[in-house]
């Protein structure tokens, strides 16, 4: 099949490689600091058998915050909107992803949205299952179905590395427990959350997940629904308003593609009715987004008129 993206991808990846020198690999989760800062990879899935890809697209990396859109979808499928949005709001914060500030300044004291850490922790506490093992199994099955890759699992070393150092996320959780947003044992929640964040994918897996979201939650290869239409719409809306944290406004203007980033350097993009994009570039900007990944999305969006606005 002739690929109209393929010819440009190589050139675009080469163009953005130099931006990696202005970024920094995350090291507050010690295991993430092993990443190679100059790596850049991309895959595009257009619904056919072909994933157009370039650079380090087969390298595995952990989902980190990208997992937040998946747990949000699953929690909404488990409980519906009323329950989920009684625990978490729908507004962007303009604050860093791990900020505690607005938990105290907003009454009622629930996190402002499901993409910041506090909101994601509240959402993770809602995933159905009688044990963390069962919850994680359900989440993994969901990710495997969305990506069409049955071998996806989590990286135990990264999960442990985060669990051992996640004192800020513990603080957010204890604060929310005190205010009745979550209940139960905080370390049990942290155990699940850190494993969820450590689910490992490559760019092609991410591109397929993005494609499924872009197509109202349908299976990337088989045309049946995995995520209900309304939930896929809602998740994509959060990707636009909060997916790139306190860079979401500028990203909407410069790129205009629903997207979600993670501190491992991954970004998933979902062009509604169009392609799914998976990116990897572990050198991050000061807001925790892949510096090369954002630039690559900007180039792609401009070249192929992918902005939804
Ligand atoms: O909770 C954390 O801090 C990480 N597991 C995930 C944060 C993250 O990916 C923010 N993204 N840019």
TrEMBL record:
InterPro entries, sorted: Beta-lactam/transpept-like, Glutaminase
Known catalytic reactions: L-glutamine + H2O = L-glutamate + NH4(+)
UniProt: substrate binding residues: 65, 117, 162, 169, 193, 245, 263
Record's keyword terms, sorted: Acetylation, Hydrolase
Record has Transcription regulation as a keyword: no
SUPFAM superfamilies: beta-lactamase/transpeptidase-like
Organism: Halalkalibacter wakoensis JCM 9140
UniProt subunit comment: Homotetramer.
UniProt entry tagged with the keyword Metal-binding: no
Protein name: Glutaminase
Signal peptide: none
The organism's taxonomic lineage, starting at the top: Bacteria, Bacillati, Bacillota, Bacilli, Bacillales
GO molecular function: glutaminase activity
Family of this protein: Belongs to the glutaminase family.
Biological processes per GO annotation: glutamate biosynthetic process; L-glutamine catabolic process
Entries under NCBIfam families matching the protein: Gln_ase
EC number: 3.5.1.2
């Amino acid at each position: 099949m002739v690929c109209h993206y393929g010819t440009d991808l190589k050139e675009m990846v080469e163009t953005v490689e130099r931006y990696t020198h202005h970024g920094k690999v995350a090291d507050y989760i010690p295991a993430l600091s092993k990443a190679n800062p100059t790596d850049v990879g991309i895959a595009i899935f257009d619904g056919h058998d072909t994933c157009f890809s370039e650079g380090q697209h087969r390298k595995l990396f952990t989902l980190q915050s990208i997992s937040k859109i998946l747990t949000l979808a699953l929690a909404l499928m488990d409980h519906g909107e009323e329950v989920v949005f009684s625990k978490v709001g729908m507004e962007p914060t303009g604050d860093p992803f791990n900020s505690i500030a607005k938990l105290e300044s907003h009454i009622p004291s629930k996190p402002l949205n499901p993409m910041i850490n506090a909101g994601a922790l509240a959402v993770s506490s809602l995933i159905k299952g009688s044990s963390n093992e069962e919850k994680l199994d359900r989440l993994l099955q969901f990710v495997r179905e969305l990506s069409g890759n049955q071998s996806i699992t989590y990286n135990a070393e990264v999960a442990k590395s985060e669990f051992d150092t996640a004192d800020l996320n513990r603080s957010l959780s204890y604060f929310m427990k005190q205010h009745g947003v979550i209940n139960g044992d905080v370390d049990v929640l942290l155990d699940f959350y850190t494993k969820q964040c450590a689910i490992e994918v490559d760019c092609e897996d991410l591109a397929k997940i993005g494609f499924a979201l872009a197509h109202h939650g349908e299976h990337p290869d088989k045309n049946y629904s995995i995520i209900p239409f309304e939930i896929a719409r809602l998740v994509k809306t959060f990707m636009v308003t909060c997916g790139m944290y306190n860079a979401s406004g500028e990203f909407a203007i410069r790129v205009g593609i629903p997207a979600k980033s993670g501190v491992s350097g991954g970004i998933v993009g979902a062009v509604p009715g169009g392609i799914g994009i998976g990116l990897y570039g572990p050198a991050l900007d000061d807001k925790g987004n892949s510096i090369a990944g954002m630039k690559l999305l900007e180039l792609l969006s401009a070249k192929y008129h992918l902005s939804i606005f």
